[in-house]
């Protein structure tokens, strides 16, 4: 009975020793491939993208380790982190430009279609009131009208103070005149209150006098 079972399991003419030797040879050849496949399946993907490191602010002051900090130091470090995250942009320091349309708006036929003649001359600006000249000077910055208004104000004995950004005019002859300054009573234009005011015993230093010719 044992011979019959062994004959069914083993082909005729094939010995048991050769079968076992063949099985051993196949197993020996399959083991490296199976180990390689298993290692590839178990291997995790490697992240090759650069990682962003966050270096605390206190590490720059104490690279050997964090020192004992106080509440005031913690608040200062937090303020530094917040200011770094909200740094101003270059465009924040630029002065906003006013829009000047290239195409004029259509108007009624009875309205003047062209500007009056000689409105861009100094003679025309000299006929305007000082308040109008001040308005043109402060509210039409960077234009030819501002330049002409400044020329007209200088013709009317007004002097521009570069420190206070205000126009001054002598109310009377100065009580003291030196090479560096003059002192006396002056009339100045207050652009915040939009009125002329008088200032007594005012020292006008010549280094703050705008003496350009505006040509």
TrEMBL record:
<dbReference type="InterPro" id="IPR038635">
    <property type="entry name" value="CCR4-NOT_su2/3/5_C_sf"/>
</dbReference>
<protein>
    <submittedName>
        <fullName>NOT2 / NOT3 / NOT5 family protein</fullName>
    </submittedName>
</protein>
<keyword id="KW-0805">Transcription regulation</keyword>
<feature type="domain" description="NOT2/NOT3/NOT5 C-terminal">
    <location>
        <begin position="83"/>
        <end position="209"/>
    </location>
</feature>
<keyword id="KW-0804">Transcription</keyword>
<dbReference type="Pfam" id="PF04153">
    <property type="entry name" value="NOT2_3_5_C"/>
</dbReference>
<comment type="similarity">
    <text>Belongs to the CNOT2/3/5 family.</text>
</comment>
<dbReference type="GO" id="GO:0030015">
    <property type="term" value="C:CCR4-NOT core complex"/>
</dbReference>
<dbReference type="GO" id="GO:2000036">
    <property type="term" value="P:regulation of stem cell population maintenance"/>
</dbReference>
<dbReference type="InterPro" id="IPR040168">
    <property type="entry name" value="Not2/3/5"/>
</dbReference>
<dbReference type="GO" id="GO:0006355">
    <property type="term" value="P:regulation of DNA-templated transcription"/>
</dbReference>
<feature type="region of interest" description="Disordered">
    <location>
        <begin position="1"/>
        <end position="27"/>
    </location>
</feature>
<dbReference type="InterPro" id="IPR007282">
    <property type="entry name" value="NOT2/3/5_C"/>
</dbReference>
